[in-house]
Hints:
Layout: E1 8-12, H1 16-27, E2 31-35, E3 51-52, H2 63-67, H3 69-79, E4 85-86, E5 90-93, E6 105-108, H4 109-115, E7 125-129, E8 133-135, H5 137-150, E9 154-156, E10 161-167, E11 170-176, E12 179-182, E13 185-188, H6 194-200, E14 207-218, E15 227-230, E16 234-237, E17 243-248, H7 258-272, E18 280-292, E19 298-301, E20 308-312, H8 316-333
Parallel strand pairs: 1-2, 1-13, 2-9, 5-15, 13-20
Antiparallel strand pairs: 3-8, 4-8, 5-7, 6-7, 10-11, 11-12, 14-17, 14-18, 15-16, 16-17, 19-20
Amino acid sequence: MNQEASKRIVVIGAGIVGASLAYHLASKGAQVTVVEAGGIASGVTGTSFAWINASCAGMDPIAALRGGAIGAWRRLETQVRGLQVRWDGALSYGTQDGRLSPESVVIDRSRIAQLEPGLRRPPEQALHEPEQGALDAVAATHALLAAAQALDATVRTQTPVQGFAVRDGKVTGVETATGLIEADLVVLAAGTGTAKLAAQLGVDLPIHASPAIFLRYQAPPGLVRGIISSHAMEVRQAEDGTMLAAEDYLDDTPENQPAAMAQRTASAIRNELEGAEAIVPEFACIGLRPMPFDGVPVIGYLPNIEGVYVCAMHPGVVLAAIVGQQASGEIVDGQPAAALEACRPARFLVR
């Protein structure tokens, strides 16, 4: 075991990123405590469309990291009991967002109809990305934390962090209502709360809460086989028939509130899919994603203070597995990950 493997590490945040970090750190022998202000996956993880893809529009400063995302999830499936990803592929057409992955192939109408026979009017062409998938982000988070606990990690929910213990310029623990949790390293993986935690340590991380609309419907099973991203809808379906949809947040006017958008999106889905007449909106909300101002994840040690490592990013579900793998290697093994170089928090101090 690495001489650093017995490090006491506190991970703040029990979303999918924090859960992946906890599992990977514990698997390397670290003494891990996860501290969460609410419940497991109670933040943006619970409102994620959870589409696992390596697509990107334009130049991608984290191409190496994104390129390993799908492989990292496939490895985790073999390691973590109860973790399942549906690798049913994705179809994209008419969105004009320019997202591409190395595996993208153009297919014609007949092939589209074979892949998604529920489409009323298959387009003439679409991008097919057969290696892509989706998961239940909440269930995956629980599975990762259970695997971490099996490796002697501790998970404390309903435990807000009230402050930090600092000695000689180094963070030595986190303060909670039930007392101090001592640590050799603290990892900030609290989603949109990460910037506030860093600010308590005198570090300004420009991470804002980026809203998106998350929708869930009751629907007959089998309407959608994979993921469909088109001008009309972005949808996928679970085996029990539950249909998930994602929409851009527009504004706070009444007609663009989640409940109203759920009705509009339902109409679009009924128009696009055979057999969708019976779908019923079940849940609609605004999810707040942690979005660094330059769009690049914030991963690495905080500058100007010792003992703190940050993991804040969008898309968190896509990158959770690969970031857990890469960051744990840096933290426990002391091996800097080249794929994370563009993500360092220190970039915000460069003027």
